[in-house]
């Protein structure tokens, strides 16, 4: 293999570089005979301070400093495709200028993907990276806050202007003024993916982008109002919008949504929404609420194909309204409640009348088991999954599902599926098969049964058809 041409050998070796950092790659080249000439020509550079991990932090910093400096001095590749630098604790002022030189080296060598995890003392990195490069396509910037968290990131003298940047991920503890947020978007016309984490956006930012497709806020705080009437929000090509925790008011979310006419995927997670959440989007296909405290949700989305809800709800009564959702014919809909308590649901689910697949998880009925808290007529339903329900409730639900073919029963982490003492477990499951004419299979996953006649005691997985009952697996 050592007799292969230099370019071919380098290409073969670089295929394995994503699996190792630069230091390990250099060591590998030196140890293997015939490869010691390859390491100065790497097009991907990955420097991580955590690799230099001994009991002496001072010595680790010096070794890291000398290794990166020496590596860049000996580097001979014309271009750097990817440059990653992670030195979170490398915060001494004497290294700040050197770190900037390392970053500038990558920018001057037409880097396409730049990932930086550094101390937040270098505050102009955003504009410095974008302004100094005419080749940068992806920028991942994670600033480790070493001082106060209330610093305001404002616009430096250098303007933001990039006609190549398509992906921007920023994790910046602190507050970002509206002008900087506005210029980040407007100064990068080809930007398709924007991820903001731990950022507080001050004042009413103008959010306009012709090409932005994915927008994510993680643990962020949005202040002010974003008025669509004055065209401050215009994201005509946005397909996916995510809110992952943080402090974002309900009206901010709704105002952002209203400026996204082609939105297809909306993910809302770990937010406290104390007002009615009204969604009306013609193109919306996937909608997820995870660990949100919701009072009332109204959905009008004629193209919706997947609705997923994970609790807990704010009160014992949670009102969910779905419009006429004809596209649910091929949908997987899921209503989950992740809390340990049980709630009586009171909602209107006519929109699920077209569903073929439905999952209900961890909702138990604390009132009259013969009268479910809601009534569903699911003529199109083919598969139904229950978790944490008592058997009487399952039995009552199935009477209005004439086309049901499969039922899956599985307990949650706190409860096992239980049957009334007067009903044997095999008779109960067989009763379901008789009640639903098209039902072919009942599957019970990790349910606890005690049957002395069949000497069955413990958790098991069971499949039952109209012909036989088969215990698949004892767990």
Q: Would you summarize the structure shown here?
A:
By secondary structure, the chain is of the alpha/beta class. The protein has helices at residues 6-14, 22-31, 57-74, 93-108, 125-131, 178-186, 250-258, 391-397, 425-435; strands spanning 44-48, 82-86, 113-119, 138-144, 152-153, 167-176, 193-201, 207-208, 214-222, 233-234, 240-248, 265-269, 272-273, 277-280, 286-290, 293-294, 296-300, 306-310, 319-322, 332-336, 357-361, 383-387, 406-409, 441-451, 456-464, 469-474. It is built from nine helices and 26 strands.
Task: Describe what you observe in this structure.
This protein is α/β, with parallel strands linked by helices. Helix content is about 20%, strand content about 30%. The chain contains nine helices and 26 strands. The protein has a 19-stranded mixed beta sheet that branches. Strand 25 (about 455-465) and strand 26 form a beta hairpin. The longest helix is centred in the N-terminal third of the chain and has 18 residues, at about 55-75. The model is unreliable at about 315, about 340-350, about 365-375, about 415-425 and about 470-475 (pLDDT under 50). This is F-box domain-containing protein. It comes from Rhynchospora pubera. InterPro entries: F-box_SCFL_complex_component (IPR053197), LRR_dom_sf (IPR032675).
């Amino acid at each position: 293999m050592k007799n292969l041409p230099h370019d071919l050998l380098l290409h073969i070796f670089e295929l394995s570089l994503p699996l190792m950092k630069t230091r390990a790659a250099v060591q590998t080249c030196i140890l293997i005979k015939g490869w010691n000439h390859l390491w100065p020509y790497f097009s991907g550079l990955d420097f991580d301070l955590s690799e230099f991990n001994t009991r002496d932090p001072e010595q680790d910093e010096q070794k890291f400093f000398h290794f990166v400096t020496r590596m860049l001095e000996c580097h001979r590749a014309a271009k750097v495709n990817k440059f990653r630098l992670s030195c979170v604790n490398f915060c001494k002022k004497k290294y700040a200028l050197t770190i900037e030189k390392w970053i500038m080296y990558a920018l001057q060598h037409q880097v396409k993907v730049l990932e930086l995890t550094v101390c937040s003392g270098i505050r102009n990195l955003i504009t410095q990276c974008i302004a100094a490069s005419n080749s940068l396509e992806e920028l991942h910037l994670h600033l480790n806050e070493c001082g106060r968290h209330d610093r305001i990131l404002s616009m430096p003298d250098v303007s933001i202007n990039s006609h190549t940047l398509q992906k921007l991920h920023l994790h910046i503890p602190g507050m970002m003024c509206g002008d900087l947020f506005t210029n980040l978007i407007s100064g990068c016309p080809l930007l398709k993916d924007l991820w903001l984490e731990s950022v507080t956006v001050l004042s009413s930012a103008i959010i306009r982008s012709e090409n932005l497709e994915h927008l994510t806020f993680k643990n962020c705080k949005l202040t002010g109002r974003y008025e669509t009437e004055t065209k401050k929000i215009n994201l005509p090509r946005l397909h996916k919008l995510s809110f992952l925790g943080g402090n974002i008011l309900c009206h901010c979310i709704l105002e952002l949504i209203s400026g996204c006419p082609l939105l297809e995927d909306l993910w809302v997670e770990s937010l406290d929404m104390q007002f009615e959440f009204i969604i009306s989007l013609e193109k919306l296909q996937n909608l997820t609420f995870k660990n949100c405290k919701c009072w009332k949700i109204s959905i009008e989305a004629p193209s919706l194909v997947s609705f997923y809800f994970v609790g807990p709800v704010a009160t014992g009564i949670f009102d969910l309204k779905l419009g006429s959702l004809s596209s649910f014919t091929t949908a997987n809909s899921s209503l989950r409640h992740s809390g340990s308590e049980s709630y009586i649901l009171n909602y209107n689910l006519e929109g699920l009348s077209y569903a073929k697949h439905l999952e209900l998880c961890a909702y138990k009925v604390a009132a009259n088991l013969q009268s479910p808290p809601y009534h569903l007529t699911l003529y199109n339903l083919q598969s139904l999954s229950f978790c944490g329900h008592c058997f009487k409730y399952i039995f009552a639900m199935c009477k209005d599902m004439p086309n049901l073919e499969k039922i899956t029963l599985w307990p949650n982490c706190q409860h096992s599926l239980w049957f009334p003492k007067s009903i044997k477990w095999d008779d109960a499951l067989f009763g379901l098969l008789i009640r639903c004419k098209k039902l072919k299979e009942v599957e019970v996953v990790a349910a606890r049964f005690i049957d002395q006649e069949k000497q069955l005691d413990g958790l098991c997985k069971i499949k039952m058809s109209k012909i036989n009952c088969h215990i698949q697996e004892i767990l």
